[in-house]
Amino acid sequence: MTTRLAVVGAGVMGANHIRVAKSQPAVELVAIVDGDMQRAEAARGDDSEIRCLATVDELIDLGLAEAVIVAVPTPFHHEVVSKTLDAGIHTLVEKPIAGNLEEADDLIRRAEVAGVVLMVGHVERFNPVIMEMVNYIDQAIHIEADRVGPFSARVKDSVVLDLMIHDVDIVRMLAGSDVVDVTGVARSVKSPEIDLASVHLVFANGVTATLTASRLGQQKVRQIRVTTNDSYVIADLLRQDISINRVQHVEFVAEGGARYRQTGMVEVPFIENRGEPLALELREFLGAIAEDRAPAVDGAAGRAALELVGRIHEVVRGV
Predict the structure, then answer these.
(1) Under a CB-based contact definition with an 8 Å cutoff, are residues 71 and 12 in contact?
(2) Backbone angles phi and psi of 245, in degrees to 5
(3) Model-level pTM greater than 0.85?
(4) By residue range, what is the domain housing residue 104?
């Protein structure tokens, strides 16, 4: 059984969604929606059966799709997603869920009224490393997240909303609790917006986390490191590998007095769910539709990430 899917927005992310959708046997890509017809046709390629439409209203009027991926700029999320949800179309919207909490709440309500799936595209949840990492963390004590890369003039949002929001979502999931305290600093160097931010979070259950996001780096870094009672787990999201470090300390008395010995063990688990995160995200979306269940990253999770990003902005901007 295939799902008739449309993609709204044929920019950088939209083009990636289109590429992935074309490769999935469970998907029939029926339409690409973009105000720029040349861009839509370029994303369509040689497949003439895919319709290119200028507006989401046309898509709804034609009744072509039962599911849609919305990859338009954030200021248009609420307008577009409101229409698809009200039309009874299952919707995956790129992160952040909306421009503000009021809009997020409205989208969640509309999805409930329509009885359709609303999923938020926090794609790093579907990085095979993150999917595997959760199996090795019983109770986190402290979490460190670094997301660093070179500057891009294409991105107009703050680095907190553009990059750190991924780790905000992951850290919330790993901590399994609500944030009770936020502190941090930020710098604007190459743009009017925040280019570097370092934030410390305290959760209600005592877990702490330090998040750093920067577009002032000279190379890409994507790492999550978790301290637990008996291990130090390092996940490299770019290399897609995990290492679990354990150390044993032994003190003993010898002829010369007290002696100290340390032994270490490093486990490198096999990652089963290898694959492109965007493809794994799409499969989760399709699974939620087919099984009539909430997706792994539902509207509530998307709202929670947006709410915490707002609190971080208030702290680092001194609002």
Answers:
(1) no
(2) -105, 130
(3) yes
(4) 3-116
